[in-house]
Design brief:
This protein has 168 residues and is α+β, with helices and mostly antiparallel strands. Helices cover 45% and strands 17% of the residues. The chain has a five-stranded mixed beta sheet, with helices on both faces.
Length: 168
C-alpha cells in the first residue's frame, strides 16, 4: 500500500466514526425564573408566592373541599394545565406539600393529606410527568392544600421524595 492509500483509508475511517457518533445534542436552554414565574402564575387557581423563587400554591378550597381526598369537580381544569407545563419543562423539578386541616384530629388530617398526595402523584404520572420530576410530601396542618416549588436540581426532588416516604 502506498502512503496515498493509507491516507484515504484514514480519512474514510474518521468520516465513518463521525457518522456513527450521531448528531450533537445540546441541553435545553433554561428559561429565566421570571419567565417561569409568569407562565406558572397564569395557570388557573394558582397564587404565586412573593419573592424570586418559582413557588406557588392552590390555596383555600380551590382544589379540594375540606375533608375530601378527591379534587373538586372541575379540578382537572386546574391540574391539566399544570401537568402540561411541567411536562414541557423536563429539566425542571418540583417538590411539593399536600396539606389537610379538617379539625377532626392530626392523625385524620395526616391520612387525608397522604391520600391526596398519592392521588395527585398518580394523576400527574398518568399525564406524562416523569417519576422524579414532581414529588409530593403529605402534611397535616394549616396552609395551602397544594404548594409547589420548582428548581433545576434533581437533588431537591430526591430530598423531597425521601421526606415524602417518611410521611407515608
Amino acid at each position: 500500500m502506498t502512503l496515498r492509500h493509507l491516507l484515504v483509508l484514514l480519512v474514510l475511517s474518521i468520516v465513518g466514526l463521525a457518522a456513527c457518533a450521531g448528531p450533537r445534542t445540546t441541553a435545553p436552554e433554561r428559561p429565566d425564573v421570571q419567565v417561569l414565574r409568569q407562565r406558572f402564575g397564569e395557570l388557573p387557581g394558582v397564587v404565586m408566592a412573593p419573592g424570586q423563587e418559582l413557588r406557588f400554591s392552590y390555596p383555600g378550597q380551590v382544589l379540594f373541599s375540606t375533608g375530601a381526598a378527591l379534587p373538586l369537580a372541575g379540578g382537572t381544569a386546574l391540574l391539566d394545565p399544570l401537568a402540561r407545563l411541567v411536562v414541557a419543562h423536563p429539566g425542571l423539578y418540583f417538590r411539593g406539600t399536600v396539606r389537610a386541616a379538617t379539625g377532626i384530629s392530626p392523625d385524620y388530617d395526616q391520612r387525608l393529606a397522604r391520600q391526596r398526595a398519592a392521588l395527585l402523584q398518580r394523576y400527574f404520572r398518568n399525564r406524562g410527568v416523569a417519576a422524579g420530576q414532581l414529588t409530593l410530601a403529605a402534611q397535616a396542618g394549616e396552609g395551602p392544600p397544594l404548594e409547589l416549588q420548582g428548581d433545576y436540581s434533581p437533588a431537591a426532588a430526591a430530598s423531597s421524595s425521601s421526606s415524602s416516604e417518611e410521611n407515608r
